[in-house]
Amino acid sequence: MAGPFATSRRPSGLRPIGLLTLRGAALHSWYMTEIFAGSFTQQDPLPQEALDAAMAVLGHGRIHRYNVAEGETAEAALLEQDFAVLTGARYCLAVASGGYAMTTALRAVGIGHGDKVLSNAFTLAPVPGAIAAVGAEPVFVGVTEDLTIDLNDLEAKADQARVLLLSHMRGHICDMDRLMAICDAAGITVIEDCAHTMGAAWRGVASGRHGRVGCYSMQTYKHVNSGEGGFLITDDEEIAARAILMSGSYMLYERHLASPAPEVFERFKYDMPNISGRMDNLRAAILRPQIARLDEQVARWNDRYRALENGLRGTPGLAVIDRPEHEAYVGSSIQVLLLDWAVDRIREVVSRCAARGVELKWFGANEPVGFTSKYDQWRYAASEPMPASDRILAGLLDMRVPLSFSLDDCALIARIIRAEVGAVYQTGPA
Ligand SMILES: *Cc1c(COP(=O)(O)O)cnc(C)c1O
User: Fold this and answer.
1) CB neighbours of 214 closer than 8 A, spacing ≥ 6?
2) Å from CA of 217 to ligand 1 middle
3) Residues 6+ apart with CB under 8 A from 307
4) Which of these, 321, 334, 397, 387, lies nearest to 363 by C-alpha position?
5) Which of 143, 169, 219 to mutate to test the pocket of ligand 1 (most atoms within 8 A of CB)?
6) Vertex 415 angle, CA 408 and 171, to 5°
């Protein structure tokens, strides 16, 4: 596996390797160690089918989802049907973003101004943002060393809210059997944020199908790419009807396919405000071929994830996250813990990796940077100090795994992280 210039057993440092270019590694200078020259933000191009489908929509100009020719079914309605079939949900609504799917789900289960909503302390900003958008307040639940929601903390706080917005943050799925038992016993409605688990499952059941509602994102950095987009799935006809009415259906709900019967809409149509956030036919057209090959993409992500994990496992001072037996994950990002390391030393690891082309995100930073921020930086939402979660977040490093990485790239990146963590670790106890 390791190339001729692998550094894993040797202390990191400057060594002559001559004027060479490895695949995925560019020459840095004539006596430097190997570096990674790839991009952490470069996406795969869309499949040709998606390009053709987009051109067809652009060619006829009926981009608005309710603008259909005689006898035509809109791409947006077909997309919803495709995703309902894929997940086994009765109803599916495609919308403008993942954040919109979550706010719509919260409104559709009756959450509004002043209500409390249980949610993860470890997640990304759109999750507390969705709660704030409906005028509600998050009650943060802690994170464990498995990077999943702390179920003991959830149990302790179960009487504080009647809805849980559960974020499967970075694709880590908690023990869903225990979570649902806790929530069912306490009468808590579960909305799943599956922005990082589209294509994943717990005990063979698709992520998003355990709770009452599942929400997904089709934003460029997620598992399918339409720039922006979201799905909401549910088996509950009343939630589905409310969500479709709210999303801006102008009473054209009969043009949906994965939707309840018209009588269900009749019950709610005078009570639901129109809060436009529709999917359009152009984005739907480029999503359908991607949904059709999601499984194939998941396999490619997991090959890359395992190459990284294998290269990192056993690094002194670094813990990889063991994945539970019942979890079928999508390795579109990888996390490691430098638990109980001093802040300065973690910063040093991050900057040494960055100098070698490896971009690690750190959840322990004092200021929100890029995608990473933490619960006590969302000042619009009150929070109590959570020392056990702070300890985890302080040591948490995170890296995206774009499909544009080759398996050799992944092995190289793992060698770089291993070497730099090793170099800092060797300099003494944290
Ligand atoms: C991306 C993301 C969302 C949804 O985000 P949008 O940008 O609104 O599509 C929700 N939750 C998490 C954890 C995310 O990373």
Assistant:
1) 87, 89, 191, 192, 194, 206, 207, 208, 231, 232, 233, 234
2) 6
3) 407, 410, 411, 414
4) 397
5) 219
6) 75
pLDDT digit string, tens, across residues 161-185 = 999 999 999 999 999 999 999 999 9
CA-proximal residue: ligand 1, atom 5 (nearest): 98
**pTM metric for this prediction:** 0.92
3-state secondary structure 4-65: CCCCCCCCCCCCCCCCCCECCEECCCCCCCCEECCCCCCCCCCCHHHHHHHHHHHHHCCCCC
What are the C-alpha distances in Å from 353 to residues 86, 247, 348, 427? Answer: 39, 44, 8, 16
214 lines ligand 1 (CB under 6 A): no
Q: Where are the domains of the chain?
A: 48-292, 294-425
188 contacts 164 by C-beta, under 8 angstroms: yes
Quote the ligand 1 centre to 242 CA distance (angstroms). 22
Return the best residue to mutate from 103, 167, 217 for the ligand 1 pocket (most ligand atoms within 8 A of CB): 217
DSSP state of 113: T
The alpha carbon of 7 and the centre of ligand 1 are apart by a number of angstroms equal to: 37
Question: How far away, in angstroms, is 167 Cα from ligand 1 center?
Answer: 10
Which class does domain 294-425 fall in? alpha beta
Residue nearest to atom 2 of ligand 1 (CA): 195
Give me the CATH topology for the region 48-292. Answer: Aspartate Aminotransferase; domain 2 (3.40.640)
**Beta strand spans in 274-405 (E):** 319-320, 327-328, 333-337, 361-362, 396-400
Spacing, Cα 216 to ligand 1 middle (Å): 8
Kindly state the average pLDDT of the residues 66-77.
97
Distance 305 CA to ligand 1 centre (A): 21
Strands 163-167 and 189-193: parallel
**What digits encode the pLDDT tens for the residues 219-260?**
999 999 999 999 999 999 999 999 999 999 999 999 999 999
